[in-house]
Amino acid sequence: MKKNPPLQNTDTFHKVRSRLIDAFAKLEQRVALALHSAGKPVKGDTLGAKLTTLKAQPGHVEANYDRLAELVKFRADLVHGVMTFVDKDGERFACFRNARNVILQVQPASLVNYRSLKEMAEEIERLSSAFD
Fold this sequence. Notes:
By secondary structure, this protein is an alpha+beta fold.
């Protein structure tokens, strides 16, 4: 019988969340520089809009735009939601409820374990290197 790993404490979740936010920030910097190099104004658009604009450019950087778009959807909950915790079946999950949904009767939330947050940070770091 396989044992569950010990529950991650809140500090480890905060550290990996910080790493993930930094990975998104570095991605956004790289995308902004690529847009600037393409002669496109870098406005206050969302990261998703910047990626869409960059993808539409002739000779645009080859990157996995579809996967980045999926990850960017989660970013909104990550940065605009308070992180709370849920323990289920011997595993701790981080729960993010986006502030824009606070007025809804049923509030959608993202529920993610530590390993997934860490893997997302690593994936974004890897995918954003396409813009170097």
